Amino acid sequence: MTHRSSWMTSELDIFRETFRRYLSTTLSPRAERWRADKMIDRDAWLALGEMGALCPDVPEVYGGLGGTFAHVAAVIEDLEYELPEMALPVAVHNAIVAQYVMHFGSHEQKLRWLPGLATGQLIGAIAMTEPGGGSDLRALRTRASRAGNAYVLRGSKTFITNGQIADLIIVAAKTDLEQGTKGISLLMLEAEGSDGFRRGRNLDKIGMHASDTSELFFDNAFVPAENLLGSEEGRGFYQMMEMLPKERLAIAVSAVASIERMVKVTTDYAKERKAFGKPILEFQNTAFVLAERKSEALIARVFLDWCIERAIKGELDQVSASIAKYWTTDKQCQTADECLQLHGGYGYMNEFEIARRYVDARIQRIYGGTNEIMKLLIARSL
């Protein structure tokens, strides 16, 4: 039985059929070069913009398709399935950066940034994590001091997805050192011509090789006062808390799509690979492992669909999103491990998809809030 997500529509079916075909025939052949370069080229971003795959839920007046979070989820799923190298960078762009601008930006800010984000002429990033800070957003050290009609940013960030290529960066900074979480604000830094802003290393990761991940430095970087996100200072922490459920749901979307893909790839391999004169799928251990993985994939899919429905209605809560993020990414890593094992020695070779998915999966349990933090948030609801 093939499961059809409850949030799918005939319109999305048509879009996804065209989108997947374009990914597999046009963009996927470039993935190996991206992994070697540790960077996705701008032409690919512009191509996704032309396809309508960037910011698809942004209203048409701001350059988007006027869709819902269902469109955002569909793009992440299709990328994860057909071109996983782009899944994370685009998820950050679509499911995080564009969402902040849509929900908290003024009309003028939306007109200024959303059309560029939708075409791919602007690439988005969000700079929260700091060296030594990890998931503790309350411990931010980056400082934004008001100086006339601008803010002066001082500090550094690390592990920033799209950091090497981003044009528009949401920077979380302290605008009032005495107010704790009430002293955090979000500033929209436009990279071009920003004196005092510099990009550090493109970090060398064990996986996600095509996704650039960077250190960012702010050495008295000027940000115009009108680039404050929201109508007043001190709203940054609350803005982040409001948007984190969607960010974590986006990670879960990617995780479930990856699980489904790994089960399919490994099942196909097990049907073809022979040992002792018969396909390895005919061995009970292989069949049982894949039966377990298929069962968990469907369980994950059904819960994910329920969460997406709630997100579309604006009803997704922190606890449900935390459950989705923690459980699906744990299962993604388990699935990657067991599917690699069924590939035998070939599973350890980078030319095989399962090997790349194995190393790519590991970060899913860390970013967006570690899975230990997710359990803490869930425990508080008991």
Key features?
single chain, 382 residues, alpha+beta, 3-stranded mixed sheet, 11 helices, 9 strands, 51% helix, 15% strand, globular
What's a quick, concise take on this entry?
The protein has 382 residues and is an alpha+beta fold. It has helices spanning 10-27, 31-37, 42-51, 69-82, 84-104, 107-119, 236-272, 284-312, 318-343, 353-361, 371-379, and strands at 124-127, 143-147, 150-161, 168-174, 184-190, 197-202, 213-224, 274-275, 278-279. It has eleven helices and nine strands.
Can you put this structure into words, describing what you see?
There is one protein chain. The strands form 3 sheets. A 4-stranded antiparallel sheet has the order 2-3-7-6, with helices on one face. The chain is built from 11 helices and 9 strands. The protein has helices spanning 10-27, 31-37, 42-51, 69-82, 84-104, 107-119, 236-272, 284-312, 318-343, 353-361, 371-379, and strands spanning 124-127, 143-147, 150-161, 168-174, 184-190, 197-202, 213-224, 274-275, 278-279. The longest helix is centred in the middle third of the chain and has 37 residues, at 236-272.
